[in-house]
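Anyone else keep sequences and structure tokens together like this?

Example one:
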Amino acid sequence: MTNTHSDALVFFGATGDLAYKKIFPSLQAMVKRGHLNVPVVGVAKAGWNLDQLRARAKDSLEKHGGLDPAAFEKLISLLRYVDGDYQDPATFAALRRELKDANRPAHYLAIPPVLFETVVEHLSVSNCGRGARVIVEKPFGHDLASAQELNKVLLGTFDEADIFRIDHYLGKRAVNNVVAFRFANTFVESFWNRNHIESVEITMAEDFGVQGRGGFYDQTGTIRDVVQNHLFQVLSNLAMEPPVRSDSESIRDEKAKVLRAIPPIEEQNLIRGQFRGYRDENGVAKDSQTETFAVVKLEINSWRWKGVPFYIRAGKCLPTTCTEIVAKFHKPPTLIPDSQLVENHVRLRLSPEITIAMGMMTLAPNAEGLVLQNTEMMATHSPRADEMDAYERVLGAAMEGDSTLFAREDYVEEAWRIVEPVLKKNTPVHQYAPGTWGPNEVDRVVPNGGWSNPGEKKALAFASEAA
């Protein structure tokens, strides 16, 4: 399909939680910017009518983003509704009638993955899938075999170019800022390699628990929930080679190459943890071995990165909520005693604010002789209220036919190849106290010089500036 704009948006799961919290606010924002002016057809099995869906949309906007009267009136004028069972051909016949003369619809499956195959097959049989795009939510399978089966189902009706696998992390401006930092600044290329960088850390910390999603989370865990998708995408942006062109396939080629260069995770390079109290959550098994915290150490066997360890750390009930990257440099070959030196670093904070910081050694103020301190030079940007939300960005891109922000089939399967062997080994899960940086066993997989904990580094930076 050419990159023509979709002439209708169908979203399955219109009465669900994702639609309530994310989709309706994103649709209103798209209308407000003039990016959405086609029919929007909600599909669900709720026994509702169109007026009830409009009321749900209004309540969603009042709770999650703010109601803009003019944009909302436009949105509800575009809104349509089909109520019915996803296994009933009559539901899709009604959808075909509601689409009228639209021949390039985008079908957004905001539904559990177990329903993907059923919906895709009915889209094909009903001709709703002809000339269409399909947008699917993560997780893209539960392991390599299920990911391959899902891809087989999708490719049975749609071309790869018309399949958009949403990882909303790729819609975040800060994640794409990593690419801008690397490829829009000449000086970065001079040190962004194994000759200068000793190690790279990626931390995604959350100071809250599973927030009532125990049933889902207990079947998923941290590695499946955020590591092999969100954080591998961040890793790919950090480690890929400069694309030869700016089109989506050139960019996605380079990201897939990064994953191909990563061997499967070895048992000794994984630590799994579970916060105390997790097993008391609703929907969680009393003997659950699901991790709420994980640390993995990866190697990228490429010319640029061979020998540089990449550490990924993610978890719930940690001391703060923050996503941050720290690249540490080799210490300089200097006459200054090594004990006085802290590794220089580049720190990229992706949330809650966007920060680029350079860590360096400087003379300590009011000290005699060569007394050093670790100081940061920092630039920070706090997101503005009118900035695009991640879902707004990815939905708009999918309707435009731009695949840059979406995971390709080969990328998804490579990600599962890396994590699946160790997931099958039932490695131990260690308990940790809420509000700490994971279990004590994490010290077995730790960067040289220790972890760079978000918050602690910021305090140091402010103390240095104040001094």
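And example two:
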Amino acid sequence: MKLSVIIPVFNGEKYIRRAYDSVKSQNLEAYAYEIIFVDNNSTDNSAILIDELIQIDCKVKSVNQPKQGEANARNKGIEKAQGNYIHQLDVDDELYPEALNKMIAILDENQEVDAVVGKMVKSGKDLANTIKPKDETNEVILKNKPYWGLKWFLNLGTVVGEAAFMHRKSVFEKIGNYNVNISMGTDTALDIKLGILCNVAHIDTYIYLYFKHFDSITAHSKRNLNQIFHLWSRTIEADLPLYYSHDIPLEYKRTLFRQVFSTMGKIIYYSDGFQTRYEVYKKIPLDVMPLKVPLLIRAYLFVLVIFPIKILLKFYVYYFSKWHVRRYMNFF
């Protein structure tokens, strides 16, 4: 089978038919393909609507994932996928016409390429009511590892959503699946790892519309947890392990260690209550193992436990932690 389109669903009844229509309108008849809806404990009518699609289209399949979380849902879809190529489409997003065909063609024509990525449009409206930007050239740029991973890690503003990617299924055997231990940004963590360890092609084409709305999983997560805790989760669960397990470019190391040490102070400062801050302080050395937390850094962090004052945090982030990285990291 050529392609598996995986669509994770959590209470997505409003968008299921639209997501299905978006895939069907891609004109994929030349290929053997499947559409896999992964129901992640929906409590609305999502399962019923998916079953209705199964009745009318043999290409539609349904998989249940009782372990909650986007990463778990994506991983279940990958496990069940039969296609040589994998595309992940969130249920509330939409594909631009012919997007999947263009990505398939790139992977077919470039066997050394592990994945292809395009561009996305963010909008609070659906695709039909959103003006598509006119700056796409359809140019294909082939870059060997670690070009894209380094670009995304150094500037998260250049990261696009997962529906902008198409992967060979073999990629997940090389680099592993989505990290279920990350609180948010599992896609970003995998994409950075992908770009560091694999060859990625970029097509200057809009692949999909990312639908911004109040009910989205990302929006919900952002409202309920300070972003700095999400960053810390990704740092200790993905970014640091990648550094210790592979030969990583110097630019990655610099950015990573600045991120690690500055974020230590932030997660203490943004924790509520002395006891919580103290527990976070004690846990930090365990979180970053085998990286050692120097005595001076630990001393300043303890000051933040006792005195969570903004000016002390700013001095730590912008001066003290940077000084430490420059002074003690022997690869600088």
